[in-house]
Amino acid sequence: MSTAAGSEVGGAAGVLDGAPGVLDGATGVPDGIAVARAKVAGVRAAQAAWAALPVAERCDRLRAAGRHLLERSDELAALVCAETGKPLAEGYSAEVLGVADLFHYWCRKAPHLLAPRKGEIPALDLPKKTAWIERVPRGVVACISPWNFPVALPMRTLVPALAAGNGVVLKPSEWTPRSGVWLVERLRESLGGVVDVLEGDGAAGAALVEAGPDHVVFTGSTRTGRKVAVACAERGIACELELGGKDCAVVLDDCDVERAAAGIAWGIVMNAGQNCAAVERVAVHAGVADRFVPALRAALDRTRADVPGLVTPLQRAIVIRHIEDALGRGAELVIGGAPDGGGPVPPTLLRGVPHDAPAWADESFGPIAALDVGRDDDALVAAANDSRYGLGASVWGQDLARCREVAARLKVGMVWINNHSFTGALPDLPWVGVGESGSGITNSPEAMLHLTRPRLLLIDRSSAIEPWWYPYGDTMVGLMKVLIRRQQHGGLGATLAALKALHARNKVLKAHTGPRRG
To answer: How far apart are CA 226 and CA 439, in angstroms?
Structure first.
């Protein structure tokens, strides 16, 4: 999920481009970096003992931490709504409810996902050898999170990262700092110093990367995501980037018009459109447009009372600029429009927006959508794919086979048929994009693969000299050729030839090394 023009954009850009900051007189290190290094060092010191705990014990402690946090769920919902302006219903449904699911899911799944896996080793070629692939924690994970979902988004990283044995330093947005601080304070009351928080703007996020964590999970704008990727690459730090979106709802001519209109309206205005998977584009089949467009207009009109203002003034200015630019290029205003004075941006639908206009091409991150009409499924797919983003898309229709055919042609990381985007709250389902939406993964077992690293452990119980050791010679070459033929053709004859070549090779090795003791 992205902050299309949030503080992570400007703030992080300046520091990542080399702004020095204020120097600490004693160390000569910029103050922000010194603070970030202290946070990372403190979490790293606690992480070693945390990682050494058995997975089951870590999960028991996490369950207790989750219960402790959720005992104050009313306080958390009120806090996040005060910071973001979202309705209390969304505070519970989009922020707090999913937290309970995260603790339950990851504490149940982690022991299985982190269990060592036995590797396959051909016993005939490599006797008395056993291999295990272990999943070990990265170490210290830096989680740089935006303001649009200040609880749900960081917790999707915090809980599995901690279950895996990592420590975490959270850098919440400066627009919603209290939610992030509250979360970390509650977790520290149960888990101690294995988690910490670093407050500040984009410069603090840049300092956190500079401080040398082992893994970075960044959620924010595509522009800043590129800078984070470069900064991590320069330091050899693994990173996950969950960036912007410009989701399209594809409406087929056999859809349930009223249900599709209600679902797409929710997708446009939920959280005031401040959601990287918000519906920002709608591609409607010409055969249903005359019925669907009025239905969507009516559905959007019904949402007005539930749509809060945008969190940041800069975001509001961007959304208004997208609306005014589209209207200036001849788009039809179906509903809404730029607000008079300082009021909230109303739910807005624009028809006939040129595809090079920002309202179609760029992430708006507000309660607006651009609508296009296509003559057939091919035209709808072309419109949906006309984007440099690739997070999600939805297909609305009653012929599910047709819906799946359309879905298979969409260049996105997630496709929902007859619904949109709600799966971000389901921890077993991956949240992933392509293109300028980034390739980061949160939720699902696939996310655990990124929050850990594989470590190979091989145990060799053989006392023999290995046939590929020195000295080389004709028997070595002959053995390799026979083994290649056996791989190609198989069969008893090839196996017997391989055994014969191996015997000849072993005779040479024994003669070279002489008698061995034991």
So the answer is: 12
Q: Is the peptide bond before 471 cis (omega within 30 degrees of 0)?
A: yes
Structure tokens at 247: 């989701």
Tell me, what DSSP letter sits at residue 441? E
With CA atoms as reference, report the closest residue to 248 among 152, 370, 334, 164: 370
Give the pLDDT confidence score for residue 432 in this predicted structure: 97
Q: Are 141 and 114 in contact (CB under 8 A)?
A: no
> Which helix (H) or strand (E) is 281 found in, with range?
strand 279-285
d(Cα 9, Cα 14) in Å, to the nearest integer?
A: 9
Burial 168-192 (b: 16+ CB within 10 A, else e): bbbbbbbbbbebbebbbebbbebbe
Parallel/antiparallel/unpaired status of strands 368-374 and 348-351: parallel
223, 363 in Cβ contact below 8 A?
no
List residues with catalytic annotation.
242, 276
Give residues with Cβ within 8 angstroms of 268, minimum separation 6.
278, 279, 280, 300, 347, 349, 367, 368, 369
Tokens for 58?
A: 């870590």
Cα–Cα nearest to 278, from 163, 359, 393? 393
Name, in order, each residue with C-beta under 8 angstroms of 419's C-beta and a sequence gap of 6 or more: 263, 394
370 residue type, one letter: A
pLDDT for the residue 515 = 63
**Residue type, position 110, single letter:** A
pLDDT profile of the chain (518 residues), mean per 10:
35 33 48 92 98 98 96 96 93 92 97 97 93 98 96 97 98 96 97 97 94 97 94 96 97 98 97 96 98 98 90 94 98 96 93 98 97 98 98 98 98 98 96 96 96 98 94 94 91 91 91 66
